[in-house]
Design goal:
heterodimer, A: alpha/beta, Rossmann fold, 8-stranded mixed β-sheet, 8 helices, B: alpha/beta, TIM Barrel, 2-hydroxymuconate-semialdehyde hydrolase activity (chain A)
């Protein structure tokens, strides 16, 4: 599931803020900006490859993740919104399809609220970002690595397989850096913007919210509230899948994205 | 050499099945306060304050309190309250607050005010320590560990300026904004109470402590590791052209003295094990949550390959120098050797170890005061 595909996608660099960010770009079709989850940076995997069969996929690493610099001047999610608007401007992209997973789903929703005219469609994969008392997102900062893996994936065999390989020191440090970046943007309020839900009505593009059938990190009600709050939104569920979504079932999730783009977004372009 | 009596004030009454690691992954953050018995709380606070007051009475140079949150490991969310309770019941020893965890305070000026008050209440016997707070305390008070260091730095700069610069002045920083900074009272000591900072090997901390000539205090670690910290501090000072006085370096360590070598180990073992195996039971994520350390600092930590405290056996704890246990003569000798090897001029001795009962703490305190302290006073007098 995390195998890196040998293909045309190679990491490129784009100047941003006080440094630069790293991004992949591959495929043909309408441009699609993919915003990764708290994990999954620096990687072009089966999910990306499949999406790129029908879209021009642009997959940047967030500042502080993967091959991107920290850009410490960015301190909150609103800074990341402006960061990605800058990225779109620099790449001269207009009206892209916007797809975000988990933390990236939150960013995608904030972008769509801020500048609905810049996005042709929106897909949120198990997004965080809403404040729902009584249904808080799991405290992944406090989990040990085995606890986190077990919470992310539904298939126990997959969990066992991932845990059977001891991580290299470099991998531990890279993960620590990325979770530290997540703490920078999402420790308090905990992975949410208390104002976001009341702003969802601004999202005018067709939207699909994709929930994992067995999500142990983000309670289902988060997806339901996104789907209810965004005027033209539908909720679909990928069964037999944990919060990792595109990491656990890349083909099924990519198909759920592509089908929607063909049916809803394509017709309006 | 200065000897200070350090108290953690733990809550010693654990459930019988506390060894169930699934049920009780730690004594901090997630360990329910349903396990706290208020009636015992009253007894414990007064017993522990008695022990600190006794240390003052038998000649310790200082008595030490510290700050922990949402934990049975240490019951002092506010060390300043403990220091205030001690201020009028003691008269000789310094009172060291080690320290106020300023990054997790919402309002650093409140700390500046309280410490300034304590300086007056103690008639200038106060030593003011500042700490970042352990990782779990950033969970406990919802402060991002990724901001911990910059909040510490800014809060410290603000507090020092509030103590030393006549107000009102304005403060507009990254984390704190005040239109009027004008704390009453100003501290008694001039320019402000002495500052102490615990360190655990961070080069940034060593450099900062050296530049400011603060007291640098170790935390639980093997002697060989503490040596690298103290050497690092001296090195950082040398880089800026000054030689650290021994008194600016303090070794913090649990010490137990028995009547003889064998009985000492027999008596100390279960309490030392309580401290390291129960009190300090905590995951890496709790201690070093994401953002708390820089990635290079984590690399250094992984490279040091230190065992988690609960995995250290009693004999490893003794052999590696996490604790000092023995008869009077061997403890005295060991402290002398460590002083020569590590070059410290103060000790933060933890003589109330884990769930040690009051009688044993009292005897330990008496033996330390009578069998150890005078020896080093004499040595000093002779040397001087």
């Amino acid at each position: 599931m995390t195998d890196v595909v040998e293909g045309p996608a190679v990491a490129r660099t784009l100047a941003a803020g006080s440094g630069s960010i790293s991004y992949f770009r591959s495929g043909s079709g309408h441009p699609l900006l993919f915003l990764h989850a708290a994990g999954g940076a620096g990687m072009w995997g089966p999910f990306h490859e499949r999406l790129s069969g029908s879209a021009d996929v642009i997959a940047p690493d967030h500042p502080g993740w993967g091959g991107s610099d920290d850009l410490p001047e960015l301190r909150g999610v609103d800074d990341l919104v402006y960061h990605y608007l800058d990225v779109l401007d620099r790449l001269e992209l207009d009206r892209v399809d916007l797809v975000g997973a988990s933390f990236g789903g939150w960013l995608a929703a904030e972008l769509a609220v801020h500048s609905p005219e810049r996005f042709r469609s929106l897909v949120l994969l198990g997004p965080v970002g809403l404040r729902i008392p009584g249904h808080l997102v799991a405290d992944l900062f406090l989990m040990t690595p085995p606890q986190l893996i077990a919470a992310l994936y539904h298939d126990p065999a997959l969990v066992e397989q991932i845990l059977s390989v001891a991580p290299e020191t470099d991998q531990i440090i890279a993960t620590y850096r990325e979770l530290g970046s997540l703490a920078r943007f999402g420790w308090r309020p905990f992975l949410n913007n208390p104002r976001l839900e009341s702003r969802l009505h601004r999202i005018s593009m067709p939207t699909r919210v994709i929930a994992a059938g067995e999500d142990r990190i983000v309670p289902r009600v988060h997806c339901e509230r996104y789907a209810a709050g965004i005027p033209d939104a539908e909720l679909v569920v990928v069964d037999d899948c944990g919060h990792a979504l595109y990491g656990e079932r890349p083909d099924a999730v990519a198909d759920a994205v592509s089908t929607f783009l063909t049916e809803r977004a394509g017709g309006r372009s | 050499m200065k000897f200070n009596f350090f108290h953690l004030m733990p809550y010693p009454y654990l459930p019988d099945d506390f060894d169930d690691l699934e049920k009780y992954p730690s004594m901090s953050l997630t360990y329910s306060n349903g396990n706290f018995d208020p009636a015992r709380g009253v007894q414990l606070y007064h017993r522990y304050l008695d022990e600190l007051e006794y240390a003052d009475a038998v000649g310790f140079d200082g008595i030490v309190v510290n700050e922990h949150h949402q934990s049975g490991y240490g019951m002092m969310p506010s060390p300043n309250i403990m220091a205030a309770a001690l201020a009028r019941r003691t008269s000789n020893s310094s009172i060291l607050v080690l320290g106020n965890a300023i990054p997790i305070r919402g309002n650093p000026l409140r700390v500046a005010e309280e410490v300034a008050m304590l300086d007056h209440l103690t008639n200038g016997r106060l030593v003011s320590g500042f700490v970042r707070g352990i990782g779990w305390e950033h969970f406990a008070h919802s402060v991002s560990p990724a901001e911990s260091r910059s909040r510490f730095n800014e809060a410290f700069d603000l507090i020092r300026k509030a103590w030393t610069t006549p107000g009102p002045f304005e403060w507009v920083g990254e984390h704190y904004e005040y239109r009027y900074v004008n704390v009453w009272p100003r501290p008694l000591q001039s320019p402000h109470p002495p500052i102490a900072v615990p360190g655990a090997g961070s080069p940034e901390t060593m450099r900062w402590v050296a530049e400011n000539r603060f007291l640098y205090v170790s935390v639980y670690a093997p002697t060989a590791v503490v040596k690298t910290w103290f050497d690092g501090y001296r090195g950082a000072a040398a880089d800026i052209g000054y030689e650290v006085e021994r008194e600016k370096i303090a070794l913090a360590v649990p010490v137990f003295i028995g009547e003889n070598e064998r009985s000492a180990h027999e008596e100390a073992r279960r309490h030392v094990e309580w401290l390291f195996h129960k009190g300090l039971r905590q995951s890496l994520e709790m201690v070093f949550p994401p953002g708390y350390m820089s990635p290079p600092a984590l690399r250094g930590l992984l490279k040091a390959n230190l065992k988690p405290y609960p995995e250290l056996s009693y004999s490893e704890l003794v052999e590696q120098g996490y604790v000092i246990v023995g008869g009077p003569e061997s403890v005295r000798n060991r402290i002398g050797e460590l002083r020569d090897e590590l070059g410290f001029g103060q000790m933060m001795t933890m003589l109330a170890i884990g769930d040690m009962p009051a009688e044993l703490v009292r005897r330990n305190t008496d033996l330390f005061a009578s069998e150890v302290v005078p020896h080093f006073r004499t040595a000093l007098a002779t040397a001087g």
